[in-house]
Here is the input.
Amino acid sequence: MKSEKTITWVLLLVLPLGFAGIWRLQHGIDAQRASLSQERDDVLLRSGKLVKAMSLEYAPLLADIYWTRVVQYYGNKHVRGQANLE
Here is the structure.
């Protein structure tokens, strides 16, 4: 009976502290993402031939990763209201 009370008190103390810690951590992550979202519109891959040579036999995998990144980039621009896709 006493151990159940102890567990109850521990949970009443630990859970709010855990939620407060997670809340603070999430706000830190959101602040970092906000600063990262102001990235410049630079072309990172200037030579397709060079990228293909560097990818060795993994060119299809690299193409999929690059395509996913492109979709995320323009999706974020659309969400932020900067969707000038010209």
Summary: The chain has two domains: 1-38, 41-86.
